[in-house]
Design goal:
- The protein is of the alpha+beta class.
- It is built from 2 helices and 13 strands, in the order ααβββββββββββββ.
- The strands form 3 sheets. The chain has a 9-stranded mixed sheet, with no helix packed on it. It has a two-stranded antiparallel sheet with strand order 3-11.
Length: 236
Amino acid sequence: MNNNFKFTSQLKKKSKLCKRRGVADVISTILLMGLTVTGATTLTYFVNDSFVSGNLATASSLNTATKSVQLLAYDTRDSTTLLQLSNLDNEFGDQKLCGVSCTGVGLSDKIPSNGGSEFVMIKIKNNSINSIFLENIQLNNVLHAWDPQTSGVTLNTVQDLSSGGSYPHDGKFSILPISSTIQSANNEIQSGKTVNLLIKLGPDDPDISLNKGIRVLLNIGSMNPVEFLIESGNAR
């Protein structure tokens, strides 16, 4: 009788353990499914248009290469005096940053007030111990090369290039040291230096509506580009 009782007790214990294991398996499965759904939802948010065109309170760094280059400010307004630089104006009132629409016949390389494409200003600092060489800048996957014709020339955005002005051609950029209107002689940014990047939109740039996200990639010659997200229409 005692043996039968022990055997019955052992069966009951095993049954309880099996039930507990079964419940634990169910809970684990539910938790795993929850994590999967959460991860998928987060990923969807990041790749969907609501993130690209959403309200970005600050620029977001997207990779570790950004540690070597710090984004200090940017100005993408449809406004005047970008980043407090006198006479650097976009055409106020059209509620967009004009690219392809302002590079057609008769508009090539003109300043915004004369119907030409508009500017984007980005201020960065080289935090690395070595100089970096900014090979190109991508705005929303559109490539902008450094304009060698701006080398050592004083910025002049009051006149068109054809009339004596001096600024990047359509689809290119120049580099301006802080507190200077003389554009850099080359695309080198020395260690610890802060500079302004002046980008002029070109024929490959779609017009950018205000309050839209702009993906910025700085190709500094490393394996991974420096990557930021900024917002059109805002000054930082």
